[in-house]
Amino acid sequence: MAMVLEKVVPFGRSLDEYQKMFNLTATDFAKPILGVGDGPASFNAEGTKCGCTITSIDPIYEFTGAEIQARFAAVVDDIIAQIEATSDDWIWSYHGSPAELRANREKVLAAFLEDYEIGKQERRYITAELPVLPFESKQFPLALCSHFLFLYSDHFDVEFHIQSIQEILRVADEVRIFPLLTLMLKRSPHLDPVIQYFQKSYDASIQPVDYELQKGGNEMLVIREVIDMS
Ligand SMILES: C[S@@+](CC[C@H](N)C(=O)[O-])C[C@H]1O[C@@H](n2cnc3c(N)ncnc32)[C@H](O)[C@@H]1O
């Protein structure tokens, strides 16, 4: 399906934020990682510099860096104003203030854009979108999905979530998803049905993480192959 850039909020997070959102350890960073819906995050750019093997997919990668930058410039004032107007709904221990949040997002975008063309040539940024991924079965030990699944629960129904997570688990042994809240800062209504569905064949658990910007949004969902201890 052709993507409409005007519907996207191209706000990206840093490697440090990904580390905290997903409890990533040195063992995790030593594995090839798939970032699903990474958009303009600098996770791939910064991680690659540190020697990690990261593949990011996102429909936004059909656009040029200049187009993504222009979209960011078009929405950033409005989004930061909305956050300032609802400041009590957010936890400022990491970013400090709406102004610093904006500066962080600009820094992340700059790091992403600097890496984008070379990363595309190296097939580290691949244009693709859930619920279909262009990879072989079990190509990745770990997949991460930040600020797409569950967050946009008003736009994507529970069937889309189940189909998408099933597809991620086709190509990866484990998936971690953050946050579990919607844009309205409520726990996603899809969370319980998703857990019930995947618990039949996988280990599925909610785990606390050391990152909270949306108030109450400090948990991730982990779904992985059941490890046979017998
Ligand atoms: C708010 S951004 C999050 C970017 C990044 N994961 C982060 O946390 O910094 C949401 C991203 O989801 C992407 N997206 C939209 N539809 C998607 C789909 N069907 N499959 C995968 N990603 C999608 C958007 O293009 C956008 O880059």
Structural description of this entry:
The protein is an alpha/beta fold. The protein has a single domain (5-225), classed as Vaccinia Virus protein VP39 (Rossmann fold, 3-Layer(aba) Sandwich), CATH 3.40.50.150. Helices cover 37% and strands 15% of the residues. The protein has helices at residues 15-21, 26-29, 43-49, 65-85, 98-121, 158-171, 191-199, and strands at residues 33-36, 54-57, 125-126, 142-146, 174-178, 202-208, 219-225. A seven-stranded mixed beta sheet has the order 3-2-1-4-5-7-6, with helices on both faces. α1 (15-21) packs across α3 (43-49), α3 crosses α5 and α4 (65-85) runs antiparallel to α5 (98-121). The longest helix is centred in the middle third of the chain and has 24 residues, at 98-121. The termini are far apart. Bound molecules: S-adenosylmethionine (SAM). S-adenosylmethionine binds at residues 8-13, 36-39, 41, 58-60, 129-130, 146-148.
Task: Write a concise synopsis of the structure shown.
The protein is of the alpha/beta class.
Tell me, what's the shape? globular
Name every ligand kind in the structure.
Answer: S-adenosylmethionine
Average residue pLDDT: 95
The total of helices stands at: 7
Q: What proportion of the residues form beta strands (DSSP E)?
A: 5-15%
Radius of gyration, in Å, reads 17 Å
CATH topology: Rossmann fold
The string of secondary-structure elements, in order, is: HHEHEHHEEHEHEE
In CATH, the architecture is 3-Layer(aba) Sandwich
**Order of adjacent strands in the largest pleated sheet:** 3-2-1-4-5-7-6
Main β-sheet, in a few words?
Answer: 7 strands, mixed
Task: State the secondary-structure class.
Answer: alpha/beta
